[in-house]
Write a structure and sequence with these properties.
Number of strands: 7
Shape: elongated
Helix content: 25-40%
Order of helices and strands: HHEEEHEHEEEHHH
Distance between the termini: 119 Å
Largest sheet: 3 strands, antiparallel
Structural class: alpha+beta
């Protein structure tokens, strides 16, 4: 027989067998996740998490437990294809984790900058999570001055003069109209 099988178990070996063997090293993240990089000099890429999530219900809550239905009603997702916007905070992420099989979560990005209070009426949230802000347009002073100069120019021909001149040239084509 094998000598290790006959060897009496010590408290340390029973603890290791009970908890499982944990490899040394690794990067510990909040939430109890340990990440073991492939290379020892591995650096995580810099990324800033999104402040908001777009949550869309993609599956019915029928035949699911009451606590999942309660989370959906807290988010005001009563039917399929309904959308809610939630903050990216740990409490909300824990709720979303419980119903992850019923929803689709998309981070909201602002490619043209975050909207101000005046721009709230001019924002569009797309399905891919882009929040497009169509800023209010302001006229450029140079273009306004050029338009006023053009409108007030005495040599400018108005529409009636152009029509009269064109008609005259058309009717007198062979007598020197052109």
């Amino acid at each position: 027989m094998n000598k290790q099988l006959l060897k009496a178990s010590t408290p340390l070996t029973s603890l290791i067998r009970w908890k499982g063997y944990k490899y040394p090293g690794g990067i510990r993240y909040p939430g109890g996740i340990t990440y073991y990089p492939r290379h020892p000099n591995h650096k995580d890429p810099e990324c800033t998490p999104s402040k908001l999530f777009r949550v869309e219900q993609i599956k019915s809550s029928r035949h699911h437990p009451w606590w999942e239905k309660k989370v959906l009603s807290e988010l005001k997702l009563e039917g399929l294809s309904q959308v809610a916007i939630v903050k990216n905070i740990p409490e909300m992420n824990a709720k979303l984790w419980t119903i992850k099989h019923l929803i689709k979560v998309t981070p909201i990005t602002f490619p043209y900058g975050e909207p101000t209070e005046e721009d709230i009426k001019y924002t569009i949230l797309k399905e891919n999570g882009q929040c497009i802000v169509t800023k209010t347009l302001q006229p450029e002073l140079q273009k306004l001055e050029a338009l006023e100069k053009f409108e007030n120019d005495p040599k400018k021909m108005d529409s009636t003069t152009i029509k009269k001149d064109s008609r005259h040239k058309w009717n007198n084509a062979f007598t020197g109209g052109f």
